[in-house]
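Reopening: structure tokens for the 5-O-phosphono-beta-D-ribofuranosylamine complex, inputs below.
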Amino acid sequence: MKVGVLISGRGSNLKSLLDACAAANFPAKVVTVVSNRPGAGGLDFAKAAGIAAETVDHKAFADRGAFEAAVTAVLEDAGVELLCLAGFMRVLSPGFVRRWQGRMINIHPSLLPQFPGLDTHAQALAAGVKLHGCSVHYVTEELDVGPIIGQAAVPVLPGDDPATLAARVLKAEHRLYPACLRLIAEGKVGLTDGKATVSGPLDDSLQIFNPPADG
Ligand code: GRF
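Re-run output (same inputs, fresh job):
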């Protein structure tokens, strides 16, 4: 499966996807990376992996439609079948989202539907939740509410601040995103009644307690 990745910055999730795709038996490959910000750190990861990386600077376009048309041209030239957003910080228009409906996924740093939007780690600390995490979901017109494909949970620990919590979640992101990409590329993810369905070796034995429940 040919994958395109849109980034705006650091690109650590992009790197996790590139690393996963580099394995011989991985069923997807990144064919192009687009950043809307010149100098985004993630562009270097793409170049180091020998992947075509382009900057499409949103500031160089008169409006969102013209910017998105330029991004679309890059993606279509590369034959992208699945689009992964990885720290991409531009809101996408309904038209762009419809074009990629069911073929565009995002990673969000919270256990959706909790804490959509920005500053998710501060939101989690303010709410006092004991489990936090990340979600990979299909992108729909409404921000951060599309069908959830997979989630990873981490504990919120005493003394955490947004930075320590973000670092713990980020480690989980780097495992979850490639895992979800693999499932999609293997045809194990469906969409029924607005929900993502995952088939595979899933069972109900996985439970995470914080604090531990058994002494
Ligand atoms: C990640 O926390 C991701 O969940 C969010 O933006 C951040 C991007 O980080 N959407 P990076 O650029 O992948 O390092």
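Residues 162-185 form the longest helix (24 residues). The CA atoms of residues 155 and 212 lie 10 Å apart. Marking as resolved unless the reporter disagrees.
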